[in-house]
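Q: Protein A?
A:
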Amino acid sequence: MRSMRIQVFTTMFLAGIIPVILFSNIIIKAYNSQIITQRTDEIQSYATVIANLVLSSGFLSGESSDEVNRESEEIANIYQGRVMIIDQNLRIIKDTYNVETGKTAISTEVIQCMNGSKDKYTNTIGDYIQLTSAIVDPSTEKVTGAVLISFSTKSLAVLEDSVNYRAILIILALAICIVLFSFLYSALLSKPLQKVTESIDEVTRGDFDVALDIHSYSELESVSESFNRMIGFIQEQDNARQEFASNVSHELKTPLTSMKVLSDSLLSQEGMPEELYREFLGDITSEIERMTNIINDLLSMAKLEKNSADMTIVNISINELLDGVLKRLRPIAAKRNIELVYESYRPVVADVDEVKMSIALNNLIENAIKYNYDGGWVHVTLNADHKFFYVRIQDSGVGIPEELQDKIFERFYRVDKARSRETGGTGLGLALTRRAILLHRGSIKVYSKEKEGTTFTIRIPLNYVTAEN
């Protein structure tokens, strides 16, 4: 019963068949009751006719009346019953069965009629209904006798059985129709869900080229749209993973190839000058440092890819954090005579992960130094309002082409690969920075023009709020 299709089928079948059975029973009972009432009314009318004939013919006084006898016999034959006429003294003066003529009637209904309690009594006895009707003299308005008619209900029972049989046939026919309709409707309702299941199975098998196109109920259309968005996201993640693996492979292969070529050259040549040995070994050392930088950045990226639950949030001074970052980077800027200016508008204290925020700020400022002109400048400013703090890093460097600014946060993407190799860039710095800022529920924006410099602006909430809150 956990199957939605079975539940829908069962619900629709019960919702269809139960009202049919209830209404059919109500209608049949009402119909049967109406038949008995109608038969009773007919008999009552005949009892009234006999009473009138008895009064007009003086039958109660001992007068013989063929009309009364004939009418009584006809009614008894038609309704398979019995007619008795009783006088004021409870003596039976007419019995169509000719069994109790002359005897005394001791029926309770007859006695009550004689006393004038009611003018009509109906009593059910087995397969018969007994109707007792008073004979009232219109001139004196006194009860002078009673007509007792008992009639068989067997014919009514036969009619009732026939009606019940037909009702059962109709219910069975309706039940079959309801079963077919419920089956078809449940199948129609579950078919789109079956498509969803099949699509999920295909995704489980690794086929991401799946798209749901369901046009039925609005809820299922929403499921279809959400599924397609999910598949699109999975495809993007899978493509990013494959590209990341390819980039990592390429980035590590390049220095390894270079080192192999250099070492082969050293091994293949004998008697090389010491200066050449030193040059080759220096190149090998540079490639090893490059591989170390790549691996370190990959490890940092792996740490930042973890859930934000791994964030170690502390309330610290952002001013002091920037002071520490700038202190480490000033010697690098001084080597190229780049002016490094720091300006803080107010003391700022915020909830941050000190390590991750240091990585983000260090990468941005270090890039501003690396991709700058000798003798250039880098300006770092810190400001805050009641909700966020803002860090802006401006430089007078080479800038970023406008059409490439949306790609700079991708892993291993480098605007100028040749210059990146010269500066030791791995293409992971800005990806690390963006991830660290997003983990702080912040945002980062870039504005740049080629040969005119670049400006990065980051905005971080002063109070860290987890996703659950």
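Q: Protein B?
A:
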Amino acid sequence: MILTQCAVCATELGRTLGKKCGRCSTRYCGAECQVQHWKDGGHDTLCKKIKKAGGAEQYNANKKYAAAVAVAAEKCAEDTKGQTCYICTQALHWKTKEGLVRGCSCRGTAGFAHVSCLAEQAKILMDEAEYNNLDSKVKRWMRWHTCGLCEQDYHGVVYCALGWACWKTYLGRPETDQARCLAMNVLGNGLSEARHDEEALSVYEADLATKRRLGASEDSILVTQTCIANLHARLGRNEQASNMLRDVYSGRVRLNGEEHEETVIAALNYASSLGGLKRFEEARSLLRRIIPVARRGLGENNDITLRVKFTYALALYNDTGATLDDLRESVATLEETERTARRVLGGAHPIVQASERSLENARAALRAREGDVDALRDAVAALGK
């Protein structure tokens, strides 16, 4: 269950506390809130509707999905103006009347679609793979979060809408069903992409509790622990996040070895947390070891390699003790990262936009430091006259 709070007073119920409506499974902390919701909260008129939709969890997912699609279409409206869906070839969806989105790395006239079309396409591919027991299940599942044209992950509000689409599709399956487990992860990632951090944290914690109860693999548990730690960092709980990410990195080295992609990602996350604690020298030391590993194993154009270099540049110029050479290296690294990311991922991608902003800050810091050096040089020269 993703619904973990009382529908009336929002008391946190976790997975097992409180009680549920016997008809529609809406959750409450106790009988008092349930009675209040029936009398004053409109539940008497909604109960049958919720049950007809498949219960409280399904009803909630359907509503969240519709809202997320509307947000995504509005966010993408300027970019999609005058375009048509590459799947159904229409500007407005024939049934939902939703607008178009594009939240990947496609450019030009490519990649425009309706969230409903993307979700239906992903579902059909997975249904076919499951029915025929195909070996391509993992690759097909990626269509829930990866563009079928540019093969890059969706981002921002588009990923969030697809996360709700995925979850509402599979939430009715048993907890042990692989698609349901994966759908919870896609939802958490989508909420995180859209910066709905508290909601994402709730999803990941429910996911982790389920995995531990079902005896999931260490790899799967490490993935979810990473997501939880990153959200703690975004919510300002940096010490807690860093400790968790250190343990995840150690776990990845032990499980996968130092040069595995997942270990590189774990190192990146841990280094980012160190930066958040202003432990910049530790972050730089770790990233200097990881950059050549990422280049060798993943390639210069890989988005993970780009993120590693970007994080290294931040650790250079954000340090108040940075030298002039540090600042120059930071600017050069960000220039290279921004240029490569723009060519590979497109100008709208978050890595590109973050690199642009950081490059401006790094250049400003460099100009200020060079100005100080020039002023000191002039003062020394004046004393010698």
